[in-house]
Amino acid sequence: MIAMTKILTDSQFTHIQNLVESYTGIYLPNSKRGIVENRLQSRLTYRQCQSFEEYLITLTDRSENGEFLSFIDKMTTHETSFFREAYQFDALRDLLISSRQSNPISVWSAACSTGEEVYTLAMVLQDAIGKGAWSVLGTDISDLAIQKSKLCNYDLSAAEKIPSSYRRAYCLKGVGTYSDHFTLVPALKKYCDFRTQSLLTPVGSELYEVIFLRNVLIYFSHEKQQRIVGNIINALKINGLLFLGHSENILRDNPKVELVDNCIYRKVAHE
């Protein structure tokens, strides 16, 4: 039996870098080569490819669009969890309660991965401002991640990150073959929407009171970071809130926003 060759060559990794950047805008530095190699092992096994060369041929086959989507999902789905960086959700809740807005609040979770952030926002919004007074849109470049988000079906272990009061009010444990999973109550899910979208694509005329863009800018070049931030700020209403990841400080000197709290910005009127 011929041993499977599952080692990336320099040229193959360059090919993958080009594919990912052209489709998503994300640049994979050479330091990510080992991660890429490991993430794709399961795809090679599933497709019964004997080498990365064979797998890359499969990716360039136009009839294999489903495999390309799986490839993009492997390259772009990043770590996520319910109530990640929980202090920001506490801050959002306090800001919403203190503002006492009468109009419905629209929230955008950009690069939402598999939906945990969207549903976290749903629980916080429902708790802070009540039924029917909010909506959340989740977007991601990965079509498979969006499909998973819409399912709202998570391992029971993921619920450990959810505060007990929210678990009791909004989470439903599965039964039978789904006894090790949970979902959210329909009353929350109906206010959540999802779509596949690149961060580099202008969002049109839609405006939001709150936008979450966390822990994703680091995967883009500085030039693309500026484009993304421009799109995001344009989609934010005046006095709207923008939440970034704890290590992202690209807005520090941006005149269109002011710092409200740790990695939380408010859009200001700009002459």
Instruction: Give the name of the CATH architecture of the largest domain.
Output: 3-Layer(aba) Sandwich
Fraction of residues in helix: 40-55%
Order of helices and strands: HHHHHEHEHEHEEHEEHEEE
CATH topology of the largest domain: Rossmann fold
Protein name: protein-glutamate O-methyltransferase
GO molecular function: protein-glutamate O-methyltransferase activity
InterPro entries: Bact_Chemotaxis_MeTrfase, CheR_C, CheR_MeTrfase, CheR_N, CheR_N_sf, SAM-dependent_MTases_sf
Catalytic activity: L-glutamyl-[protein] + S-adenosyl-L-methionine = [protein]-L-glutamate 5-O-methyl ester + S-adenosyl-L-homocysteine
Describe the structure.
Methylation of the membrane-bound methyl-accepting chemotaxis proteins (MCP) to form gamma-glutamyl methyl ester residues in MCP. GO terms for molecular function: protein-glutamate O-methyltransferase activity. Its EC number is 2.1.1.80. InterPro entries: Bact_Chemotaxis_MeTrfase, CheR_C, CheR_MeTrfase, CheR_N, CheR_N_sf, SAM-dependent_MTases_sf. With 271 residues, the protein is an alpha/beta fold. The chain has 2 domains: 10-75, Orthogonal Bundle (Chemotaxis Receptor Methyltransferase Cher, domain 1), CATH 1.10.155.10; 86-267, Vaccinia Virus protein VP39 (Rossmann fold), CATH 3.40.50. Helix content is 41%, strand content 19%. It is built from 10 helices and 10 strands. It has helices at residues 10-24, 33-47, 52-59, 65-76, 86-99, 116-129, 143-151, 164-170, 186-189, 222-234; strands spanning 105-110, 134-140, 154-155, 171-173, 181-184, 192-196, 208-213, 236-244, 257-261, 264-267. The strands form 2 sheets. It has a 7-stranded mixed β-sheet. The radius of gyration is 20 Å and the shape is globular.
